[in-house]
Amino acid sequence: MFMKRTLAAGAGIAAGLAAGLPPIYLFALRRDCLTWGARPDEVSRKLAGDELLPDASLVTTRAITIDAPPEAVWPWLVQMGSGRGGAYSYDWIENLFGLNMHSASEILPEYQDLKLGDELPLGPDRPVMRVEVLDPPRALALRITGPNIADQAWAWIFALRPEGETTRLISRNRIPTASLPPIPRLFYTFFMEPGSLVMERKMLLGIKQRAERSAAAAASEVTVPARLRALYSERSHGSLFSTGISSKEMTKMPGIIVGIDGSVHSRRALDWAIHEAAIRKAPLTVLTVHQAAAGWAGPVAYPGDADLTAEARKKVQEETDSALEKLDEKDRPPSVTVEARNGFPATELLKAAEDADMIVTGSRGAGGFAKLMLGSVSSQIVQHAHCPVVVVPGDRR
Fold first, then answer.
1. What value does the mean pLDDT take over residues 8-26?
2. pLDDT (0 to 100) of residue 311
3. Choice between 243 and 206, residue whose per-residue pLDDT is larger
4. Residue 46: helix, strand or coil by DSSP?
5. Which residue has the higher pLDDT, 162 or 233?
6. Angle (CA) 134 142 34, round 5°
7. Are 144 and 162 in contact (CB under 8 A)?
8. How far apart are CA 338 and CA 159, in angstroms?
9. Domains 35-217 and 224-392 share a fold
10. DSSP characters for 133-186?
11. For a Cys-Cys bond, which of 31, 68, 235, 263 suits 72, CB 3.0-4.6 Å?
């Protein structure tokens, strides 16, 4: 009799707790679940991509502060997906559902050239997420797509907001659940919402960890190979590295690529590259990259991209001519070529430098090469260049 009463009491308590949990979640926990890490202004802010599902009844906005610039965070976002860079969350949970997620621990160059309309797989034989908004390194919005209307009921939006030397990464999900039958709607509310917090919190923390690590590595590794470590100190512009490279070695490299964007730092890089190319009697290529922003219906400046690239080339040509005019013939490189491209700076610089013997950049930029010392551009160049990389500081120290 005692045992029966104990079991009955336990069942009553369990039933009471079960009955009490939904109200506790709805009125005490749900808001924090849907807005983990986000500030009130971030929750209410309109983001690029909200228009994809404007009437979504379920909207989550979660955020995190990352101690790195947006350029260092962006590469981790664009390589996400099944069979790509993964989701930086709990892979073992993802893979229980056969999603084939394996979170990358490094930037993958083969997945960096993301374009509008590209499709990111959620898993084998699953719907895909199509790129609807692409504005590097500020906004990325994806929308699920599939053969059924139900397959189109999810938009995932990322916004990167610089705050000094840090980035606020905002992740927003928009799902129209109001049209669902009662039981699926309850399932979304009491199981999917808390579950999404567990997975998304892990993802945001995973991106934070990776971006901060790569930014710190870029800041230290950007000093290039050990054999170039005081090359700059031997020149007239100041000191940067120390090295034991011989004069014979310095005169046999045939090609130097310098990336510039019109900033003061890049002009110092241009002066250094001209001086170095003259010493080596090596040809010099001056490269600038125009990176156009894009909206959900296509690149914002699409009709004028060619004109903008041509204008960028003209400015760089004038800047290069001005730098050369100040020099005697003997102090100039044997040849100087100015080139302008439209695309992603790191990708284009690495392509241009495939057969070069040195890449030269400024420590910080104003456009495509912005915040190079800490950004994704330098990280990719240092990790994947097939030649020495020299980063010229902006200040004489």
1. 52
2. 84
3. 206
4. coil
5. 162
6. 115
7. no
8. 35
9. no
10. EEETTTEEEEEEE-SSGGGG--EEEEEEEEETTEEEEEEEEEE--TTS-HHHHH
11. 68
∠ CA 239-241-242, nearest 5°, is 105
Which sign, positive or negative, has the C-alpha torsion 176, 180, 185, 191? negative
Residue 376, both tokens: 């994704």
Give the CATH number of domain 35-217: 3.30.530.20
Cα separation, 117 vs 292, whole angstroms: 16
Q: Where are the domains of the chain?
A: 1-25, 35-217, 224-392
**Which segments within the chain are labelled E, that is strand?**
58-66, 119-121, 128-135, 139-145, 155-163, 166-175, 256-259, 284-290, 294-295, 298-299, 336-342, 358-362, 389-392
Rounded to whole angstroms, the Cα distance separating 59 from 96 reads 26
How is domain 224-392 classified at the architecture level of CATH?
Answer: 3-Layer(aba) Sandwich (3.40)
pTM of this structure: 0.55
Q: Give the alpha-carbon dihedral of 195, 199, 205, 207, to 10 degrees.
A: -150
How many alpha carbons lie under 13 Å from residue 326 in its C-beta half-sphere?
8
253 has pLDDT over 50: no
* CB distance 293 to 242 below 8 Å: no
Mean pLDDT of the chain, nearest integer: 77
C-alpha–C-alpha distance, residues 178 and 181, integer Å: 8
Distance CA 302, CA 227 (A): 43
- Poorest-pLDDT segment among 14-23, 124-133, 208-217: 14-23
Q: In whole angstroms, what is the distance from residue 267 CA to residue 321 CA? A: 12
- Residue 165: half-sphere exposure toward Cβ, Cα within 13 Å: 8
Residue 97 pLDDT exceeds 70: yes
